[in-house]
Amino acid sequence: MAGSVLEIKNLHVSIEDKEILKGVDLTIKGGEFHAVMGPNGTGKSTLASAIMGHPLYEITEGSITFNGEDVLEMEVDERARAGLFLAMQYPSEISGVTTSDFLRSAINARREEGDEIPLMQFIKELDEALDYLEIDKGMATRYLNEGFSGGEKKRNEILQLMLLRPEIAILDEIDSGLDIDALKVVSKGINKLRDENFGTLIITHYQRLLNYITPDYVHVMMQGRVVKSGGPELAQRLEAEGYEWIKEELGIEDETVENA
Amino acid sequence: MTVETKLSFDKAYIEQFSKDRNEPEWMLNFRLDAIEQAEKLEMPKPDKTTIRNWNFTDFNHEFKTGEAVSSVKDLPEELRVFFDEDKAPENLIIQRNHSVAYASLSEDLKEKGVIFVDLLTAIREHGDLVQKYFMTEDGVSVNEHKLTALHAALVNGGVFLYVPQNVQIETPIQTIFWQEDPDITLINHVLVVVDKNSSITYVENNLSHNAETETVANIITEVHALDGAKVAYGAVDNFAAATTTYVNRRGIAGRDATIDWALGQMNDGNTISENVTRLVGDNSTSQAKAVSVGRGNQTQNFTSVMHHDGKASDGFILQRGVMREASTAIFNAIGKIEHGGTKANSEQESRVLMLSEKARGDANPILLIDEDDVTAGHAASVGRVDPIQMYYLKSRGLTDDEAQRLLIHGFLDPVVSQLPIDSVKQQLKHVIERKIN
């Protein structure tokens, strides 16, 4: 079977009784790279958090399925073990737990008891990924995200992505706060995963990330909905012309959710 | 349970006990004087914990020997985990019940004049040294309260460690206090004297198996670090649920001396624990780090004190507690700077993590300062597991239990990682694992 399918239908999501997503439809298949773009405050990160099961977000309507299974019925960890991954915009700092210990636990969580990853194999894979992402080896023994710079946190998210090998990954503003060199390295890591079994949903409001990771599909979100979809050329037009033309085309005055 | 105020040990009993141990007269008199005081003295009053109904005074004091072991390989599995595989510690005493089951001290240390023997032997063979430091006004006094006096009168185990001047010892010195029989009582005294400019690492374990048979442990440690001495003191306490424990570990640091504590306080029963460091000498320093995991219905009270007398002394208290189920614990941290202790620095941090609705924990920071030219600081927090951290960990596939496990280990790591011997560190992790599963 070539690739998994994440299917989002008519998704409505609220936070503290305020509706943020107002009917999102999106299907991501293995092998496909999707980009979701849009100005700030239009619901992009809410979509990412809702897919993963963030405790503060409430799904009020619609469905998310993964290979036909109801994702909304799954616990957060079940979603992860099923093959979903979210690279977070603001990863938690976990004091006292080293990046290395955490990664090994996360890898083993996907394996059967008694079939834990051999230590040497783990170290080899970790070292290779650290090298590939040009991360200082010392990060492995530092407490997870504690005292990391913004760029280090993003690289660490991609490190986790590379080692955990999910089927569908959602990358929530993985480019924010990165300088151009870091952006190139992070993109290199994501591109390395590209094959027919790996699909991704890249959330960004800058086109520049898409200079390094070419999406197959580009979607624009406004007012808590996907208002326009297209190919890579759509991202380029957004870069050149901004979002105004879409607003005009659709008769939208304020694109954010707040005042919608 | 009602507790009788009348003690069940009289002078005749103590005379016989002392005679059976062939003790010198000074020790007999010391015991007799102590039992007299024990009758009159009050119980200790740990801050914010009521111990009125705890039994510390009615117990079986019978002296029970344990079988000797010829090699650490003959020990049961739960004791073998204290050691590195295939490498028996060079300097080790195992006390099984009340007698020594195993003892070794390297030739090198013997030649350097190091004394490391069980306390009852030390009282007979090194009387002058023991008498000079054992429960004096400088350390833990007999008359502090009923339990210190009772301890002095009835002490029935422990070790004596003496390091002469200018001896640097890198190999750790290790003791295991193994209460094999459920119904006996450990009244152990650990007396550590490190003479001028010497340094050691000492680690001990306390272990019992009496999940149901009720008994008492009354443990006192005195560490004398003379001028310029450095002592790293590690401990993993693991008394079973039916032991009511009083444990008092005290350090006295001379000029330029250092005493660092790393305590894994993993008892399953009710516990009062005091860890007091007296920074007597100028420029003396101490770090007192302690962790605890509470479970079941146990109630515990931890008091960690830095007492600054000397000038420019530096003390740091770090306490971490995880409270599960219906357990309760109070963490008192006291930094006391006496008049004259100029340039002293007293810092403390106590943090409590509560894992259930019924668990109760409190951190109680206290600074008592009688000098102007000093620095001091405190941090304290009591909280629950952060749901956003849980979400993050679970989003990588960790189950609820695994994520919580990682967070607990992480929370305790600042202390656990400080334990001076790797095998003991692993053993503490092991005990923590058992207490959180």
From TrEMBL, chain A:
**Highest taxon of the source?**
Bacteria
**Which SMART domains does the record match to this protein?**
AAA (SM00382)
Give the record's keywords alphabetically.
ATP-binding, Nucleotide-binding
Name-wise, this protein is: Fe-S cluster assembly ATPase SufC
Instruction: Kindly indicate whether the keyword Nucleotide-binding belongs to this entry.
Output: yes
Q: Which residues form a coiled coil?
A: none
Please report which protein family the annotation says this sequence is part of: Belongs to the ABC transporter superfamily. Ycf16 family.
Instruction: Please verify whether the record's keywords include Manganese.
Output: no
Q: Ranges for the ABC transporter domain? A: 6-248
TrEMBL record, chain B:
Domain of life according to the entry: Bacteria
Please report the stretch or stretches of sequence annotated as the SUF system FeS cluster assembly SufBD core domain.
181-411
NCBIfam families noted in UniProt: sufD (TIGR01981)
Q: Which Pfam families match?
A: SUFBD_core, SufBD_N
What name goes with this protein?
A: Fe-S cluster assembly protein SufD
The major lineage groups are:
Bacteria, Bacillati, Bacillota, Bacilli, Bacillales
In which family does this protein belong, per the annotation? Belongs to the iron-sulfur cluster assembly SufBD family.
* InterPro entries linked to this entry: Fe-S_cluster_assembly_SufBD, SUF_FeS_clus_asmbl_SufBD_core, SUF_FeS_clus_asmbl_SufBD_sf, SUF_FeS_clus_asmbl_SufD, SufBD_N
Q: Which PANTHER family match?
A: FES CLUSTER ASSEMBLY PROTEIN SUF, UPF0051 PROTEIN ABCI8, CHLOROPLASTIC-RELATED
In this chain the SUF system FeS cluster assembly SufBD N-terminal domain maps to 22-174
